[in-house]
Queue: 2 jobs
Job 1
Amino acid sequence: MTTSNELSRCVAQFDPQALPVSAAQAIVRQWATPIVAAERVMLSDALDRVLAEDIVSPIDVPAYDNSAMDGYAFDSATLGAAAQSGGSISLAVAGRALAGHPFTGKIEATQCVRVMTGALMPAGCDTVVPQEQVQEVIAAGDEQSIRFAAAALRAGSNRRRAGEDLARGAPAVRAGRILRASDLGLLASLGIGEVAVRRRLRVAFFSTGDELRSIGQPLDPGCVYDSNRYTLLAMLRRLNFDAIDLGVVRDEPAALEKALLTAAASADVILTSGGVSVGDADLTKQLSRALGDVAFWSLAMRPGRPMAFGRVWSGGRAGAGDPALFFGLPGNPVAVMVTFYQIVRDALLTMAGATLQPAPVLHATSAISIRKRPGRTEFQRGTAHRAADGRWQVTPTGSQGSGVLSSMSEANCFIVLAHDQPDVDAGDTVEIMLFDGLI
Ligand code: AMP
Ligand code: MG
C-alpha cells in the first residue's frame, strides 16, 4: 500500500520549475496502477475493451487440411513419376469437393479430385494444382481428365495444413490487448463467443474558469465557450473510457472542492482544465493540495507548461476515503490536447489494464525551417504527406499558439522536437507522430 507522501517524495527528486517531459512521463507511469475488476461480455460488445485473460486456442485453426486454391487435388507421389512422361502429368477427375462438401470416395494414383478453395483435402491427396496451371481438360463422355506440368509443383503445394493459423493450445490473444476487429474475428474463429474484459476506466472531468460559457448561453464580454470539455470527452471516448462530465466549475473554492470530492468518489481518474497556472484565480492549486497529495509542475514542454499531478481523496484529505489519480491540465485548448496525449494517455491506458504499444514515430523532411528553443520538448502541429519520392514531408500548421485550436484541427501529426534539439533547417529530418492509425 502506497502512502500519500510517497508521491511528493518521488516528485521532489526533480526541479518542478523545468520538469523534462520524459521525467513527468516516468513519474506518472509509476502511479498508474491497473484496475483489477473484470466482467464478461459478448464478443459483439468487446470492440476496444481490454482483454482480462489470456486466450488459448481450444482447437486447430484451420481444423483440417484444405485446399488453398481452386484446382485439382492429387497424391504428390505422382510428381516423381512425371520425369518419365516428359514432365507432364495426366490424371482422371474422380469427383469434386467444395468448401463444406467433402469428397468421401477413395482415389487411385492415376486420379485427382476437383477442389475449390477451403474444401477438405480428399483422403490420399496432399497437393493441389491450381486450375490456372492446368494445360488441358479433356472430356470423354462423362469422364474428365486433366494434364499439367509437374515442374511448378512440390509435395504439399497449395494445401493449407490443419493448425497452420493457430494450433490447439497455442496462445491466441494475450491479456492486456485492446481488442480490435481482427482479434474479434480470430476469437470467433476459435468458437469463443464471450470474453473477460477489464471494467472500463472511469474518468471524471470538468472545466474551470469564470469566463467559460456553455453552448447555448450568451457569450458575455470577456467570455469564451468551453471547448475543453468537448475535446476531453471525445479523447476519452475514443479510448473507450467511461467519461463522467461534471460540467463547468466556477473559480470559487467551495465549488471546486465539491467538484473534486464528487469526482474522487465516482471515478478512478480526475481530469480538469484550467486554473493551474500562476494566476489570481488559480484555486485548484490550494484546494487539491488540501484534499490530497498534489504536485504542481512547470513542464519543460510547449505547449502545456503548467500542470498538476497527484491524488485527490474523496474523504477530503490524504488517506481518507477513495483516492483518484488527478491530472490538472492547463486551460489553453491546444495545451489540453497535447498534455493529454503526451503525459496522460499512456497512464490511463495502463490503469485500464492495457499493454502499452509505443506510439509509432516516423521520420519526415521538414518543408520549412522551424525555430526551436533547446531545453524543452516541443510538440508542433503539422501536416504531413508523402512526397513523390515516397518520403514523408511535413509542414507546421500556421500559428503554433497554445490557444489556437484550428492549428490542431488542421494538422494530421505532431512534429516532435526533442528536449535538446536546436532550430530546424528546411530539408532537415524531424520526428512526427501521426494522429490516425489504420485499424
Ligand atoms: P487558465 O489556465 O485557467 O489560466 O486558462 C488559460 C487560457 O485558456 C485562458 O485564456 C482561458 O480562457 C482558456 N481556457 C481555460 N479553460 C478553457 C475551456 N474549458 N475552454 C476554452 N478555453 C479555456
Ligand atoms: Mg482559468
Job 2
Amino acid sequence: MAAEDFTPGLNFIRTIIEADIKAGKNGGRVHTRFPPEPNGYLHIGHAKSICLNFGLAAEYRGLCNLRFDDTNPGKEDVEYVDSIMADVGWLGFDWQDRLYYASDYFEQLYEFALHLIRSGKAYVCALTAGQIREFRGTLTEPGQNSPCRERSTAESLDLFQRMRAGEFPDGSYVLRAKIDMASPNLNMRDPVLYRIRRESHHRTGDRWCIYPMYDYTHPISDALEGITHSLCTLEFEDHRPFYDWALDQLPVPCHPQQIEFARLNLSYTVMSKRKLLELVDKAYVRGWDDPRLPTLTGLRRRGYTPEAIRNFAEIVGVAKRESMVDMALLEHCLREDLNKRAKRVMAVLRPLKVVISNYPENQVEELDAENNPEDPGMGTRKLPFSREIYIEQDDFREDPPKKFFRLSPGKEIRLKHAYYIRCVDVIKDTQSGEIKELHCTYDPESRGGWTQDGRKVLGTSHWVSAAQALDVEVRLYDKLLSVANPAGEKEEKDFMEYLNPASLEIVKNCKVEPSLVAAAPGDRFQFLRQGYFCVDLDSTSEMPVFNRAVTLRDSWAKIEKSQQVK
Ligand code: ATP
Ligand code: MG
C-alpha cells in the first residue's frame, strides 16, 4: 500500500461531499446508504463500505440507510438478512427507522418500467440469453439491434403486462432498455431491465414472477430514498452511464451521484461471497462464523472488536485504485485496541510440571498481579501460588542453545508476579526418556519477582498453580490461504488449492489461572506472551474454549518501521 492510502481525514469522497455542501447541492444534505444483497454474510470488505457510508453520514450530520438489494430471489434468504442487520449493529452503526428493501419498490419499479415503454425507452425482447449476448457485440465491435427493438409501444406494453401476469414461461421474454447498440459502453447496449423467473422471494413470496435487474433497481431505489451520494465499488464505474440514464428518463424525486471507490482486498484470505459460500457448503470451515473466515461474524467469534475494525477501515481509507491490504494491518489494529483493554492473565498452553522442592507442602499463597500495565485503573487480582506449578514446555531446555533466556538445568528465571526459581533436577520417564517434571528451588526473598540484591535472571516465564488451574481447550488459527494473493501466482489455480491445511490447531489440556472461571463467550484476554484470546461460543463450564484472536508479534509495526527508514 502506498502512503497516500494512509492519510486519515481527507479523501476524494470527502472532497466531493464538501464541494457539494459548499455549492448548496441537495440543499446541503448528505444521505448515503449501505446496500447489501442478502445472499451471504458480510465480510471485512463490506465493513469498509459500512464504515464509509455510515461514517460519512455521521460526519456531515446526514443520514445513512440500510437497504437490502433483494432482486435475486434464488440466492437470497432471511438468514442472511438477519445476520446482516446483526453485523451492522455490532459494528456500531444505527440505521434508526431507515431499513429498506428494494423489494418494497417492486410495484414502483414496475410502474417506472411501464413509463419507459410508453416513452419509447424500453421494449419487450424475445431473444434468448445466448442470443442477447451474441447480439451485444464486443469491446471492439458494435452490437446489432434485436429484431424486437422496433416492436410498437402498445405491443410491448401488452407483453410486459402479460409477463407480469404469468402468461409466459421463464426465459421467454425480457424487458430491455432502448439505448444504443453501438455504444462504446457495453452496459448501454440495450441492457435487460426485467426477466421472468418463477422463484419465491423471501419477502414477496409468489406475488411476482418477473424480477427487476440490479442495475435498473439500484438507481431508482437510491432516488426514491433521497440518497445524495451513492458510493459503490469500482466495478460499477462502467455502469454509471446507465445509472444516470435511468434516472434521467424517469420522474424520480432526485438524481443521486454515484461515486466509485476501490474495493478492499486482503492478503491470505478470500472475500467474495461465492467463495465464502463454497467453503461453508463444502464444510472446509465450520460455518459462516468460523474464526478463520474474514466474515464479520467469524471475526467477532475470533475476538475482533468493532473498534478495531472501524479503525482498520479508517486507516485503509478510500482510493480509486485497487490494492491489496496486508492482513498484518488488520491484526495490528486489533492488538492496538486489545492492548488497551484486555485483562492480562496467565495460561500455559503446553504444560510442563514443576515441583518447587523447598516450598512448603499444602501451602497456598495469594500473590498480587496487575490486570493491565497499560491501564492501572484496571486494578489487580490474586494469583494462587503453591508447590506444584506448570510452565510452558518451550520455556525449558535441557541442552539450551546459546542465548536461550529461559529455564535450563542449574539456571534461574523469574516467575511472573511470583518468585525466582532455579532448576535443580530433570525427572524423566525411565522408558521413553520424555521429561515428566522439573524439580526447582525458589528464593523466598524474591516474592513478587524481585530480589534485594538486584541479581539478574535469564528471563521471565508465565506459569499457573497446578491445583487451582482450570483445564481449557485452546484453538490457534493461522492464515486461511497459504499464499497472499492467488491471482498473483504464476499459474493461477482454483483458490481451494491454496487453502492452508494448518489454519486451525486445537490444543487440549491447557492450564489457565483460576480467575478465568467466570469468563463468558466473547470475553477477551491477553494470555501473557501468547496473544489475545477470546472465549468461544462452544465454551462450557466443563470445558472452556478459547480462540486465539491474534498473536503478540506485530509484524505490521515492523513493516511500518522499515518503510519509514526508506
Ligand atoms: P462480493 O463480491 O464479496 O460477493 P458484493 O459486492 O456482491 O460482494 P453486496 O452485498 O452487493 O456484495 O455489497 C454491498 C456493498 O458492499 C456494495 O456497495 C459493495 O460495493 C460493498 N462491498 C462489497 N465488497 C466490498 C469490498 N471488498 N470492499 C469494499 N466494499 C465492498
Ligand atoms: Mg453485489
